[in-house]
Amino acid sequence: MEEPATDDETSPAPAGGTRRGRSVAIELICLLAAREGAIRTGEAARDLAIARSSLNRIVRVLADHGLLDLSRRGWIALGPAALRLGQRREAMLRQEDERHQAPRRKRLSRAPGASYVLARNPDCIRLSDTGRFRRTPKFRLGFSNASIDHPWRTALVHSVEYGAVRHEALVSALSVRHAGLDADRQIRDIEALLTRGIDGLVLSATRSVELAEVIAEAERRGVPTVIVDRGRPDVLPHASFVTCDDRTIGEITARWLSERLHGRGSVLLLPGLLGADPAHRRLEGALAVFARHPSIRVLDICWTGWQQRRGREIVAARLASGAEVPDGVWCDSGLQAVGSLKAFVAAGRSGAIPPHTGGDLNLAYKLAIRHGVAQAAVDYPPAMGLRSIEVLIDVLRGRAVPRRVDVSTEIVVTRGHATRSVKPDLWSDEHVRWDLPDDLILASGLGPAYDPRSFRIHYKGNRYNRSAAVDGGRRIDAGP
């Protein structure tokens, strides 16, 4: 009866020396990892410079322990035990990422009966069947981005890139293209990515209806799509939608503002981009709340495109015209709230600025604290970019994924300005980063040292470790 290999068994080494069977076993596992989990027996013997008889004894021992799979004649593959180790490592990496993304430890207790937890969409518990998309790693991924026209979108791109690098063992290349809010251009971008042979697509959509056909074509080619941030899941074929509950963001901030005003007064509404689905969902949520307060009057609804300049122009014009000064200003993001706050400061109203909503941007928190403005915000986390890459990788591995993934976020309120039903996870002065740039987006999920101005990253195809977000809105093809 043939004895299994032991630690004392030796075999020829490339340089003429000897090495233990244990060393050969480790080298074989590393070789399999580099060869996507399987290799022909003869090729393994040549690469390891070992006699096939010695190799066969070693692999049988490893197979007995589940580390190798010898079921395919002439091949050596990683076995179930080795695959479980890899899956466990992925789980540990994901847990580490989620730990960075999760809200910091709660420092305030919630009011009894407070109801501000982001709603759980039914699609969060529905699973997509992804078996038809299953492929062998490594994967070539594409990201079709609606635009790169403000700091939040820069942070989203950084998060997507970080996701690809975080899982570089499974990702061979990432190609990023920015559409400049042009649906026709985004269609061409997606067609170009498909031509380049991507395995999966992350999509932040400009106009969902116009994109539906090209996304359907991608699916027909076996290329799955994960929607992130923008896009209508009722229109676009998709495996999963990674987002944060926009309507509830609008509801929470409007509820806080209504309670700050004690249910009466006038409000100016400054939503984001007219053509973006998240802006409409947030506005719908806010209007539903204000409608429950008959004594609150909506003075005007002015779309800002999430641009600081536009927010400042709208408010400055109102203050200069002698029109009624609002008792509160509702913004769905700090991107335009900063413009409103600056307009009030420029008009000499520092210290008497009405309550504002809208966070995300570091400068929004800085200005509110500096000028004594009551402020509430629910940050919209760019960390969803990283999560979308993880979900897409799961899809390409044939794993079931939720139809919708909601990324966690925080409620932030200036100190002393909590209301009856809206209690913060953090005070603004705990959340703000005085040591980092004004254009920092705080819910990036990229760690406390993240600085958008010095961010560098390397993945196959990008140049000089520069992010695809540095091009100022032009197309970036950072792929193979």
UniProtKB/TrEMBL annotation:
It holds the Pfam family Peripla_BP_4. The keyword Transport applies. Keywords: Signal, Sugar transport, Transport. GO terms for cellular component: cell envelope. It is found in: Cell envelope. Signal peptide: none annotated. The keyword Signal applies. Its main location: other. InterPro entries: Peripla_BP_I (IPR028082), SBP_2_dom (IPR025997), WH-like_DNA-bd_sf (IPR036388), WH_DNA-bd_sf (IPR036390). Coiled coil: none annotated. Transmembrane segments: none annotated. Residues 142-399 form the Periplasmic binding protein domain. GO terms for molecular function: carbohydrate binding. Belongs to the bacterial solute-binding protein 2 family. This is ABC-type sugar transport system, substrate-binding protein, contains N-terminal xre family HTH domain. It comes from Pseudoxanthobacter soli DSM 19599.
